[in-house]
Design a protein that fits this description.
Rossmann fold, alpha/beta, single chain, four-stranded antiparallel β-sheet, six-stranded mixed β-sheet
C-alpha cells in the first residue's frame, strides 16, 4: 500500500474533509466524515443498510455535493468546479461500476464500451478499437462485442460495465456493490479482475460492499454506522483464493 505523499501508478488521491450530507429536513446520511484515500490504494466501505455507504461513495466520486465540508480529487476541490468541469472530471478521471449494469440495451456490447470515448471526441474507429482492447482485457472476445447486452450472462454484462468504466483510462474506479447481482463464483471473477487492475496499474479503487469476502480484497476497510466512520482497518489482500490457489 502506498504511503502518504508517495503516489503509486496511475491512481489519484481522494480526500474527504469533515464531510456531511443531509437531504431535506431529515437526519444526515453522512456526518462529519474525514477520510484520505492515497493514490493507488484499494479501499472497501462496509456497513449495514442505511449506514451511508452509497452516499459517501457518491460524494467521493463527485456524483453528489456535500452539505458541509469538502471533497478533493487529485488536488481539485470539487466545490470550486462548475457543472461542466465536474462532468469532465468524472468522465476523464473516474470510472463507475454499479450493482445494476446500466448498459444501453439497443447498443452492441462494443458500442456500450465505446460511447464515453466518442463523447470525449474520439473518432468512431479509434473508439471501437480501444473498446475492443478493453473487452479483451476483461476476458470478452470480439464475437461477444457484437452482441446486445441481453444476450450475455450477468457476469459477462458486469465485465462489459467494467470495460466501459476503464476505457477512458481513469485514475479512480468506484464500485457500488458490483457483485451484488452475481452468483458467488462469478462475483469472485469480477473481484479478481479488480484486484489485477489494482496490482498492475496502481489504480485507486473504492469499493462499497456488504460482503466480508469482497472487502478482503482491499488493503483497507472503513466501516460506517449511522453515517459515521466507526472503524478504519488496514489489512493485506488475501494470499489464496477460495480454491486454495496462490493469489
Amino acid at each position: 500500500m502506498s504511503t502518504a505523499g508517495e503516489p503509486r501508478g496511475d491512481g489519484c488521491r481522494v480526500v474527504a474533509d469533515r464531510v456531511s450530507k443531509r437531504y431535506g429536513g431529515g437526519a444526515a446520511a453522512v456526518t462529519d466524515v474525514s477520510l484520505v484515500v492515497e493514490a493507488g490504494d484499494f479501499l472497501s466501505v462496509m456497513g449495514p443498510s442505511g449506514s451511508g455507504k452509497t452516499t459517501l461513495l457518491n460524494l467521493l466520486a463527485g456524483l453528489d455535493r456535500p452539505s458541509t465540508g469538502r471533497i478533493l480529487i487529485a488536488g481539485q476541490n470539487l466545490a470550486e468546479l462548475g457543472v461542466d468541469a465536474l462532468s469532465d472530471l468524472r468522465l476523464r478521471r473516474i470510472g463507475f461500476v454499479f450493482q445494476s449494469f446500466n448498459l444501453l440495451p439497443s447498443f452492441t456490447v462494443e458500442e456500450n464500451v465505446a460511447w464515453p470515448l466518442e463523447f470525449l471526441g474520439e473518432g468512431r474507429r479509434t473508439a471501437a478499437r480501444r473498446a475492443a482492447a478493453q473487452l479483451e482485457r476483461v476476458g470478452l472476445d470480439d464475437g461477444q462485442g457484437k452482441r446486445r447486452p441481453a444476450e450475455l450472462s450477468g457476469g459477462e454484462q458486469q465485465r462489459v460495465a467494467l470495460a466501459r468504466a476503464l476505457v477512458a483510462e481513469p485514475a479512480l474506479l468506484v464500485a457500488d456493490e458490483p457483485t451484488g447481482n452475481l452468483d458467488s463464483r462469478t462475483g469472485q471473477t469480477i473481484l479478481d479482475l479488480l484486484d489485477t487492475l489494482h496490482r498492475d496499474r496502481g489504480l485507486t479503487i473504492i469499493l462499497v460492499t456488504h460482503s466480508p469476502a469482497a472487502a478482503a480484497y482491499a488493503e483497507r476497510t472503513v466501516e460506517l454506522l449511522d453515517g459515521r466512520i466507526v472503524r478504519d482497518i488496514h489489512t493485506s489482500p488475501p494470499l489464496t483464493d477460495t480454491k486454495g490457489g496462490a493469489r
